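Quick illustration, no need to memorize.
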Amino acid sequence: MFAERTGYIVWFSDSKAARGLDKYGTLHYLSRKMHYAVMYMNADVADETVRNLQRLPFVRKVERSYRNEIKTEYEKNVPDKTRFYGL
């Protein structure tokens, strides 16, 4: 139903030209101060899109985001201490 999405961090040198990155995928965040953008694109066309991004004159580096590989289900192994602080 939904296409598999991957995230990429694009480091750029010109923040004005970086606003045009939205035609290569979904532009999630753009940092003008630190000169990077976070964008998401479909996984099946990601390799071709990254090659096209690296050809742009204002792009310095393209990194893949590992956010979807990080464990986000947490377990509570610490015992509950609320009964010690009761009245």
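The first strand starts at residue 5 and ends at 12.
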